[in-house]
Amino acid sequence: MKYSVLVxxxxxxxxxxxxxxQKVEDKLHLLNSKAEKLDSIVNKELDxxxxxxxxxxxxxxxxKRLDSLIDKSTAKLDSITNAKKNTFxxxxx
Length: 93
What we know:
The protein is built from 1 helix and no strands. By secondary structure, the protein is an all-alpha fold.
């Protein structure tokens, strides 16, 4: 009788441990799945940031080229204005 009670108790404990082990494995699997999804989202957002950074850099280069063009145009206009001014001053004398 004692042995059968002991066997039953051992089987219940083993069964309970098996259930707990399965629950732990299920939770770990769920946690791993969520971590992979989060990693995927982070990678996608990081790709967006890198793409945006590249776009900002390209636009910055365009602004530099336009600024240079404006400087050259301003210098040419100043030169033309000064030439006309000098001509006008010579005619005025």
